[in-house]
């Protein structure tokens, strides 16, 4: 009888563990819809997200960089540009600017009249989610209003018993630059 009791507890804990990142994603989507910056702030590891975005933007910039000719001096502007990109991300990627980021990533979220349970459910079922390790969860999400773009990729890590966003890979067709990191070793 005790073995069944322990097995029941084990399976209940496993079910809770498997549902927890999905509940976190749902909580994040509700916070975006409600413009609840405090809730969003608690679900994001800001330092990790900033580093992720810096790497994506700088990699994209360097991939399109001009290759100097044989007699040409190297492009010293590249170092300045990468520093400017890094500083801009440090300055602008924060809780105070979340509304602008949300409007850029998910225009449908900014129209609360058109965003409803059915829209959220459709986005949820269109998402591709998977665990890459016991502490890392990935979600590729087609954002409402951005169906023609590649999915938004979120990486969540279990930190201090809470799933937190640690990486955001923006859709490839984002204006001005492509932000998909080609060195990413995701499965799926």
Rounded to the nearest angstrom, the distance between the terminal CA atoms is 41 Å
- Our estimate of the beta-strand percent is 5-15%
Query: Domains counted in the coordinates: how many?
Result: 1
Strand order of the largest sheet: 1-2-3-4
Could you walk me through the main structural features you see in this protein, from its secondary elements to its overall organization?
Helix content is 48%, strand content 15%. By secondary structure, the chain is α+β, with helices and mostly antiparallel strands. Strands 1-2-3-4 form a four-stranded antiparallel beta sheet.
Descriptive labels:
48% helix, 15% strand, alpha+beta, 188 residues, 4-stranded antiparallel beta sheet, 6 helices, 4 strands
Give the gist of this structure.
By secondary structure, this protein is of the alpha+beta class. The protein has helices at 2-34, 37-42, 46-63, 77-92, 98-105, 117-126, and strands at 128-133, 136-141, 152-159, 162-169.
Annotate the secondary structure layout.
Elements: H1 2-34, H2 37-42, H3 46-63, H4 77-92, H5 98-105, H6 117-126, E1 128-133, E2 136-141, E3 152-159, E4 162-169
Antiparallel strand pairs: 1-2, 2-3, 3-4
